[in-house]
């Protein structure tokens, strides 16, 4: 399974890394508690784009590449498991530079002592990342890469558009998050994500295992 | 001798096409050619063997084991070449090798680079910039670089120039010197098979109509040629197919039936080529 994960890293398109420019947005953060949501959403979006793009490399499309993969000494279940594990890697690849950038910003403005922000952001962005993937992969394995790619690109474009259109779009969420404790949100978010990932993984295995290539 | 590949009564139904009761076997140390017209089921059969397509019923055995038991371990022992571009188009040959090689416990870089040099494949170019023939050479080098015992190839000679086709056949003959190995390949270019294949499996409309030694298959049929005046004589011998030519006629017959006509002075018996056997079998729609 490790080789399958390395494969995803190796076939990642260079242009996918452009999505990391979304972190520029973080530099404009006001240091309010509600920015946890923005930071988490950006991190999840970056991880999502990276994960989705690691499924497409070349003109031949997905069927040919699945033929290659399944002709190698791997099981179908391992292919799926590698995808779900690799989400975690893409998440870390997005979270670490983002959090690092924020830390630098905090230190340069002599603002320290908000470790809970990073912990909350870590949990929330991980949940968001896996939740997006939980929706994406069953679609990808059931309806094929064209439908999944189109839907993912649409979602990515709309999300990026929303970020750059200004924070005001998130006012209702900011207001809600200010009103409740972040920890109150995190626990249900984690629980929902766990259930979603479990169902999503089982569906993906079922779809992929029954498919002919 | 041990069968390295065995298909027993394999069935697979698709919309508008089905593999029906496909059975044949290949022993270690031999090359089997898999022939049939377009759409006959050659690629589908190969995909069934590789477990890319789930069979409805029947059994496929690789190295004496049912492939359901441990396909992952069995695939370590298989080298494959497909008729489509399966490698990553946006990566160079070298990067594709780096992706695929770690999956094989017995990957041998020395063998890989030797074949790459022999086939003159540029490893620093992206796959999408390579010609079909060069991609096929790359795929072949990949298939041969992990000491696979069974090489499965789907139309490996299509898109190749005659010079490399000859080289490829030499490589296959070289590989098969190791008697623990076997090669199974489908092709349209039957002249290639006559040179190297020990066995031929012939499939039409999803059904295997012949699976036997190449020489036996070639002996099993005859072409009978003669003037138009001799045509009624030949028709009574129930030819499989009969075609009128500018000089007379050409009849495709069972070898045993044809030999009964050998004494007729105005008839000439010829051994058909694989291509002719394939042509007449398809034309006549003959099924076993």
TrEMBL record, chain A:
Transmembrane stretches, start-end: 12-30, 36-56, 84-104, 116-139, 151-173, 185-203
UniProt keywords, alphabetically: Membrane, Transmembrane, Transmembrane helix
Pfam families: ABC2_membrane_5
Coiled coil spans: none
PANTHER family: MEMBRANE PROTEIN, MEMBRANE PROTEIN-RELATED
Stated name of the protein: ABC-2 transporter permease
UniProtKB/TrEMBL annotation, chain B:
Stored CDD domains: ABC_DR_subfamily_A
Keyword annotations of the record: ATP-binding, Nucleotide-binding, Transport
SMART domains attached to this UniProt entry: AAA
Cited SUPFAM superfamilies: P-loop containing nucleoside triphosphate hydrolases
Name recorded for this polypeptide: ABC transporter ATP-binding protein
Entry GO MF terms: ATP binding; ATP hydrolysis activity
InterPro entries listed in its UniProt record: AAA+_ATPase, ABC_transporter-like_ATP-bd, ABC_Transporter_VariousFunc, P-loop_NTPase
Domain ABC transporter: 4-230
